[in-house]
Design a protein that fits this description.
It is an enzyme of class 6 (ligase). It catalyses: (6S)-5,6,7,8-tetrahydrofolyl-(gamma-L-Glu)(n) + L-glutamate + ATP = (6S)-5,6,7,8-tetrahydrofolyl-(gamma-L-Glu)(n+1) + ADP + phosphate + H(+). It comes from Lientehia hominis. The protein has 15 helices and 17 strands. By secondary structure, the chain is an alpha/beta fold. A hairpin with a 2-residue loop joins strand 3 (87-89) and strand 4. The protein is globular. The two termini are 39 Å apart. The model has no long low-confidence stretch (mean pLDDT 91).
Length: 433
Amino acid sequence: MGYKMNIKEAEDYLNDIPRFSKKTTMENERRILELLGHPESGQKFIHVAGTNGKGSVCAFISSILRENKYRVGTFTSPHLVDITERFLIDGEQVGEELFLDAFHQLYNLCEERKDEIVHPSYFEYLFLIGMLIFREMKVDITVLEVGLGGRLDATNVIDSPLVCVIASIGLDHTEILGDTISQIAWEKAGIIKEGRPVVYDDSREEASRVIRKAAAEKRAPAWPVNPADYDITKRDRAGIEFRMTEGVLAGREFRVPFVADYQAMNASLALTAVHILEGKKPGRLEEALLHTSWPGRMEPVLPGVYMDGAHNDDGIRVFIETVTKIPCAGKKYLLFSAVADKDYETMIDEICRGADFNGFILTELNSYRALPLKNILETFQKKTDRQIWSFGNIREAFAFAMEKKSEEDLVFIAGSLYLAGSIKELLREKAGS
């Protein structure tokens, strides 16, 4: 079998893939799956796409299924700290040994058949590893999150999902998916399969129109979920409560351990998807939603400290809406950074105009995609006259935020999932010491 890599070597190998391989074709992916013995064959899938919220929908669906005694595999992206976060079995990330076994199966195949197949891209490689892991662990259902778009995404090689879900659609990755909501919705709707039901966020008519048309063409039953289908009845620092007003769950009240209003929509999408899957009202719904966890999405990481992965215009907009609704007896501060390939000026403009922050703590990411601190600082200075502090690295910025924060203050962290991952590492380091 040759030399076996450890987890760091395997991750370094994966991180190097973009240097010698771009996204391949569906035919190439299917050929690799064939050579691997079709690990996806026999698996049952729930396929989830969307610009924002798809990871949360996956988390809610997985939790509901677990509470109803299914053995659940979940494939999501990106990871915040450990690459194994992308592969969950019953809500727990897989161990390194299981990951490495699957990694080496694929690595050896790519070496042995390199004259016959094109080397998978980074995301394709991880998806294929996931298929091997979930076959090995004999899961009942795999909850599968799209990486980018839908129509041409690596995950779209699956043929007949139990149900498809399309979460909130907004403008992101416009250089790849198109620069209008309709174009992006068309790409997302590419996961809809012949005759298979699709549940979708019906908040935006421009997107809904495209999804309905795609569903009709595929004779796929379409289940819209609209914000009018539920009422948010309570919110506090630990979560929100909402009551369903329409549909099969009308009258039921639920609580989720997230402070953002949009999580009511994500939970409603998940509830609808599992209801379709079961053909009846599944049990233990209240417990399932209450026990859902999804790191880095308006997550309370310390008392009075919330971390959110908002990193595009729509994500920042709903992040701001959430910030303004959280009660605060003291001051609110934002720790912010961003990557260079996002529309950071619009994001910063939204933040400065829409949120009631008392000050901004700025830093630079440790990533080749990092937006230079100079650009971030100059943009904030143009947009606001509120107090600004800037730090060359995340460790110093986070330490300053914690020193400045009083018991009544709130600190929010947003702008990039890279930032969220780095903060997670600092918190783990602190807990370990």
